[in-house]
Each structure stands twice: as C-alpha cells, then as structure tokens.
Amino acid sequence: MNTLNKCFSTAAFSVLLLGGTLSAQEPDFDLSAQRSEIQTVAPVPGCRLDHGGIVINPTPQQMGIDSTQRLDISRGLCLKDPAGCFAEDVDFVKLADKGPRLEILFGAKRAARQGVKPVSGAYRLTVDARGVTITGYDECGAFYGLQTLRQLIASPASAGGRIPHVTVNDYPDLPSRGVVEGFYGTPWSHEVRMSLINFYGRFKLNTYIYGPKDDPYHSCPDWRKPYPEQEAMQIRELVDACRRNRVDFVWAIHPGQDIRWNEEDYRNLVGKFERMYELGVRSFAIFFDDISGEGTDPERQVALLNRLTEEFVRAKGDVAPLVVCPTDYSRLWANPTPQGSLSIYGRKLDPSVRVFWTGDVVCSDLTPETLEWVDSRICRPAYFWWNYPVTDYARHIMLQGPVYGLDTTLTAQQVCGIASNPMEHGEASKLALYGVADYAWNVEAYNALDNWERGLGELIPEAREAYRTFAIHSADTESGYRRDESWETRTFRLDEWTAPAAAALRAEFERVEQAPAILEARCTNRALLGELRPWLDEFARLGARGLRALDLMEAFRAGADDAAFWPQYEANLMSAAERRSYEAHRSGTMKLQPFYQQAMDDMGYGWMERMLGRRPMTLRGIGSFASAHTLQTRPMFDNDSTTYYTSGISQKPGDWIGVDLGGVHGVGEVLVLQGRNSTKDVDYFDHAVLEYSVDGRQWSPLLDELDKQYVIRWTGSPVEARYVRLRGLDSKRTNHVAIRSFEVNPLHADRLPARLSGSDAGDESRLPYAFDERLDTSLPLSGTLELSVRPGTEQYTLLMGGLDAPVRIEQLSADGEVLERDETGNSFFRFAVAKGTATLRVTGDVEIFEVIAR
After folding, report:
1. I need a labelling partner for 229 at 20 to 30 A (CA). Which of 147, 208, 552, 845 fits?
2. Which of 89, 248, 290, 375 is catalytic?
3. What CATH number is associated with residue 292?
4. CA-angle at 394, arms to 392 and 397, nearest 5°
C-alpha cells in the first residue's frame, strides 16, 4: 500500500463519515438552464476527400495501397487462427480450405517483429499475393485488424472479390474510446443496446458506460437494490456482447443524491458491486453529477473511491480502475481554488481513478485550454465526457450533423479518453458515434466533413442522398451547443429575390419534400427509420411549405389579385396544431423554416400595407443576444404566456431584449412578462429599465429602476417610437433571460366596438385578433360577430379561413333593419358599406384573420 492509500485507509474513511466540507450545487439543479453558455455557430471544418474506393473508419494511422496488385478471395479464405479466438469474427468472408490464407496472430513479441506499436489495440494488416496476415499487439488489436479487413472487402475498390494489396500499420491514439449512456429521458431498449455494441466493435470503440439517469437501479431511489431477474439477465447479455466485440462494459452507479456517509451504505455499495461482478461486470464507475446536499462533499467522495479501489478493485485482481464523474464536472460552476473539489481530487484521489470532465460548460468543445485547466487540478489526464449528440435539453431536435469541436492536436497525455453521451435515439446516434470513433482513434487526421460524408453511406447506403438531405438540415440545437446546419443552402428575403437563387432554393425544397418518402421506401434499418419517422414526417411538410412559399413570392412580386392571393396565402399559414407538431419534431431550424416564416411575414406585411393604405405595426425581436434576432423570439409575440424566448446564454449588465415595430408609431402601452413563469423563475432581469427609441441610438426611459419585477406594464401619453426594449442594469445575476410576452399597444376586448354572441361564439379574449392587423393571429368564430361601423367607412374586407359552410354577412341600420345581406364561401370577401349602416354582423363557423375597414 503506497502513501496515498495509507492516508485513506478504512480508519480515515470512518473519520470522514462524521464530518467534512460540503461543496453543494444549487438545491434546485436546473439541467436546461445549465447546458451551455455559447451561442456561436462555428462552421464545419474539413473537406470531402476522394478515397479511391476504399472506405475505412476509423482512419488508419498508416496505410499503403497498391491498386495494381489484387488478391482474389472470391472463392474464400483459409483461416489460420492458432489462438482459436476469432472463429466468430470472420462471418463477413467466405472460408475455404484451399483459398488464400487468412492468418490472425497476436502477442507482444510477434507484434514487435512486425513494427506494431506496443499499445492495446494496435495491429498490422497485410494483403499480398500470399494472402492476408493480421498481427495484433494483443487480442483486441487482432480483432481491430479484422474490422479493417471487413471494411476493405466491403469497399467499392474490392468489387468482385478482388481486394487491392495493402499494408496497414495502425493503433489508437486514445486508450478509452466510447459511449456513456448517461442522458436524461427514456433509456435505450435492450435491442438498441445490443445493436450499438456491435456497432462499437465494428468501428473500434472500446468502452460502453452504462449509466442511464432514469434507470432506478443505477440511481435513486433503488441503487442499493439488486436488479430484478429479467433486467439482470439482460445486463449479463450486454456484458457478453461487449466481450464478443472487445468492448469494456462499465457499469455506473449514481448514489450521491441520497447516499449516507456511513458504514451501512458503504456495504450497500460494495454489495451492489458484488452482484454486478457476478453478472460479469469488471469495470465500474461512480457518478456524483447533478446532485445536491451531502453527496457533493469531495472529501467523502475521495475517501469512498480510495477505499473501493483498495478493498474491491485491487482485492478482486481482475477489475479495471474506477471512473468517477465529479460534482464539479464543468468549469462553468467548478471551484477553481485549491479548496475546490477538483483540487482535492488531484491531491488525494488514487492516481488510478479516471475523472470525467465536460469542458468549460456542460455541452462544450474539447480544447487544449479546458484540459490544461482541469488536468492541472486533478493531476492526471481528464476523461472527456462529451455531451454530444445528446438532446435531453432539446428533445425536439434530432442531431444528424457532422462531429466537430474536437481539437486535433491533443494527445493521451492531455486526455485519457472520450465518451460520447448520445441521444435517447440510439440508432440515430450512430452517425455521430461513427465520427467519435474516427476522432478518438486517429486524432490528428480527423476530418469532420469527410467523416460525415462517409458515415451517411455507412448508415443508409441504399438511400444515402435522401438521408444526406435530411441530415444536413437536422444539425443545430438553436440554443445550448450550437451546430452548423444547411451550409450548402442559400436563402433570401422577399426584397432579395433573384430567379437563379429562387430556382436553386426550389430544387432544395423539392429534395426536402421527397427525401422522407425515399427513406421510407428504401431504408433497410427499420429501427433507425422508426426513430427518424416523426422528424421525417415534419420534414416533408417543411418542404411543401417552402415550395408553396416560393410560389407565393413569385405571385406577390407579379402583383397577384388580392382575391386570388389570399386563399393561397392562408392555406400556407401553419395552424396552431401544425405549429405544435413542428415544434415537437423540428428540423431546418437555421435556414429552411426561417425562410418560410420570413417569406410569409414579408408578404403578409407588404400585403397588409396594400390593404390598409398604410404600413402596419410589425413585431420583430431584437436584442444584445445573438438569438434575439432570430425566429426564436417569436414566442414573445404569439399571445401565449406558456411559451417563451430564452437567451440561451448568461446575462450581463447592459444586455437587453426588445422589439422593432417596423416604423415609427405612437406607443401608449407596453406589457412585458419576464421569466418562464411569474413566481420563482430565475431567468429574468432582476434590475432593469424599460426604454424606447426612434432611431435605435438615442434611448429614453419609460420605466426606470425596475427591481425584481416579472410583470412590467407601462401606460401613459403616447410617445413616438420604433423600438422598445427592456435593458438589464447592474446585477450579480448570471442566469439566462426568458421573456414570455412583449406586447406594444395591445388591443383589449372590452375596448373594441365589437362583441361575440351565440351559445358557442368563441373566446371573447381572442376578439382583438380580428382587428390587430396581423395575419399570424385569428379569431375562431362559431356564432356571430357584431361590429359597430365607424362613420365614413366605405368598404370592408374579410380575411377568413376554415370555411366548411357559407358565412352570412348582414348590414344593419341603427334601429336593426337589415339593409344588405350576403353569403360567401370565399375566404376573401370584400363589400361596400350600404348607406345608413350602423352595425355589421358576421355569422358562421369560420376563422377570421382580419376585418379591414377602409
């Protein structure tokens, strides 16, 4: 026992049970608010390469190819496996006693004679006139050589069973390369886990860490209890599958939320480990992430890990060193001082224990800077827990873009491994894991874009281009860990229209609309298709919306007749149900859906200006946050206080959120609802000022020194303004900012010269939506709308939708006499006001978007 272990003997552990420092997080840990602090969208690095028909992943360290010489294996290979280890691993090739030899050897001495690097997983593969020879440094290396041979035989260059002569001398850069099933949400099914383990083996990933947050026997409340018989049997099957694929199965436990630092719980923990050991587990991890209370005490955590290392790991003799996820797993909240948890780990934690780290923030790039920061504190190379492609903070997104954000200059002296935390959609995570495998094996040679292009063909070779169309438009999270998306597509606004740009975009929307049907018809991985299907359904609808928007833009620019334009425009507006469906399964968030929305807005505003004879007030989000200028601000204007805009990044004094009205208007009322709710939410400006401006440069206050106000209302003598904003003042708060509503001059139902009648006429509070000069709001009517006619009004235009039956329009005199009566089944109806009309009455089952008086 060395000095470090002596310091943390059983006796020392017992002392710590009675006391020690606490380093707790906030009691109410908010996952969604803590995911990331970065909104920058970096472009995808790399370029597509010509591989000469040979596709191998991960990219070999050294590979020589002689395409002029080929080995004919069409009649089979003769297996020479003196160790008898690989009979089950050569199912990808026909075996024949009289064929060229396939010799598989391993061992340090043999490997040294072949110039194989002395690291686990290294191998040399030779294909020449005599046959195929694989020499591994160890059994794992020989297995990896077989995986390279598998891909070589499947490559286009080996068509017809004639493979080019090659020499591959290969080895992994990082010792640990794999996956941590550590997300929140629905754990993977047993079938998906088994499929993924086979995938890990094929692409030389060597670690699977089992730690789903919502497995009760992994975490609270049942981590002390044994798995029921069926679950235990499945874990044994996972262990066996990992063994076949030369993958380390690491079983993780998450006890920190309710652990009691006493001998009883220590025995509970060891007992659980013993039961897992009986199931075949030989690698273990302990997670102390996302907890609060006494479980966060780093001194006690260290004492526990050291005691387990001595009394379980070393005592067993065949158990791998422990892995730990600390409570301070991100620089975002880690204590940087020598008294911080990480420094305590560095001074006192057994050197064999590997320590997870997510980077500067929870979803973060892997950089030399973040590793220098953490490694200097934990006194060992960190184990990078990469929160990609995980979407437990953005479950409406299906991440299918390239794997990037991983520095290509790093070595095993800086980072001991990488574990990708994937989506709850395991099959759909394979595209990202294909990239993680490539990076971790050959760091310096990693080419993000080329890897993605290869991965598309690996996952769905029978419909690669359709899959590519979906994937390139399904890459960004919109908040949190931003990813580039739609980088080959150019969109434009209405006033930027050119025929070539419109033609190119039309072609892309046609591909978008067609891709789901192609995938449905051709994709042979039905499990993957099942995961993608809800997104593919919405993707097809997005393509159709985009195509119709282009048609409308062309018609609008050509001066289409109002009565002909409105029905087409209304048909392309997203209903509330359609928007909810899209919000649940979003794609095209960076360019395609914004193009559609902005095109509809631009045409809507332009058309309303034509209808009104003046420019209506617009509502467009602005602010100091990058996302404040995107469609992410739309929830501020959707008349729904349950939805909200969030900055997705920490606030600082001087940050602001506001609205551009599109022109100078008289402003007499402003209502702002801050936070995700109005009671105890933390994402708001707790010290702020409400301001207005004509030019966006000179600002004047409407309300000054607002202190801890979720609901902000100003009314007064109208001021001329184009911009209104809420600006944060000096504050220690670093939370995100959320705005549920930002209303300017809101209409009030009780102040309108209109009312609803009938037993089921509609919601009176929605009455203003028929008069707000906005085409993205509407009044559902099932009864009668009565409106007082202002003197001098010459005509009305009704913009309607959802017409299943004719609508009746009556014009009444002051004494109730019907002066004119019309019926229409058209969604656009314009009529002259009869002389003496005092009241307009509209009766039917219809959606009224706007009542326009001229």
Report:
1. 208
2. 290
3. 3.20.20.80
4. 110
Kindly state whether residue 481 falls inside one of the protein's structural domains.
Answer: no
DSSP tag of 99: S
Say yes or no: 572 and 532 in one domain.
Answer: yes
Answer whether 330's CB lies under 8 Å from 359's CB: yes
Nearest alpha carbon to residue 812 among 780, 833, 787, 840:
840
The bridge status of strand 656-674 relative to strand 754-757 is unpaired
Same domain, 302 and 408: yes
In this predicted structure, what is the pLDDT of residue 758? 83
In Å, what is the CA distance from 185 to each residue of 195, 213, 421, 422? Answer: 19, 7, 12, 11
Q: What are phi and psi of 540, to 5 degrees?
A: -65, -40
Select from 223, 213, 225, 218 the least CA-distant residue to 186: 213
Let me know whether 409 and 428 are in one domain. Answer: yes
Residue 374, CA atoms < 13 Å, CB-side half-sphere: 30
| Tokens representing residue 427 in the block | 């099959």
Last residue in a domain, options 586, 612, 638: 612
Tell me if 49 is assigned to some domain: no
Low-confidence ranges of the chain (pLDDT < 50): 1-37
Please tell me the distance from the alpha carbon of residue 406 to that of residue 387, in angstroms, as a whole number. Answer: 12
CB atoms within 10 A of CB 804: 8
Domain membership of residue 215 (yes or no) is yes
Range(s) of the domain holding residue 422: 3-34+175-460
Q: What is the largest CA-CA distance in the chain?
A: 109
Report the pLDDT value the prediction gives residue 5, as an integer from 0 to 100.
Answer: 33
Q: Indicate whether 305 and 417 sit together in one domain.
A: yes
796 DSSP β-pair partners: 831, 853
Token duo for residue 609: 């200006």
Q: Give a yes or no: residue 546 inside a domain.
A: yes
Q: Let me know how many helices (H) and strands (E) the chain has, helices first.
A: 19, 28
Q: Is the dihedral of CA 468, 474, 480, 484 positive or negative?
A: positive
Quick check: 261 and 21 in contact, CB under 8 A?
no
Q: Which of 107, 139, 170 represents a domain boundary (last residue)?
A: 170
Q: How far is the C-alpha of 8 from the C-alpha of 347, rounded, in Å? A: 12
Pairing verdict, β 283-287 and 645-646: unpaired
Q: Which residues pair with residue 285 across a beta bridge? A: 252, 323
Give me the number of domains the chain comprises.
Answer: 5
Please give the backbone phi and psi of residue 412, each rounded to the nearest 5 degrees, phi first.
-65, -15
Q: Which helix (H) or strand (E) holds 451?
A: helix 448-459
Q: What is the CATH number of the domain that holds 841?
A: 2.60.120.260
290 part of the active site: yes
Task: Give the pLDDT score at 648.
Answer: 84
d(CA 304, CA 288): 12
**Distance, CA of 213 to CA of 165 (rounded, Å):** 48
Amino acid identity at 120: S
- SS3 of 795, please? strand
What residue spans of 252-297 are helical by DSSP H? 263-278
Q: How many CB atoms lie within 10 A of CB 143?
A: 24
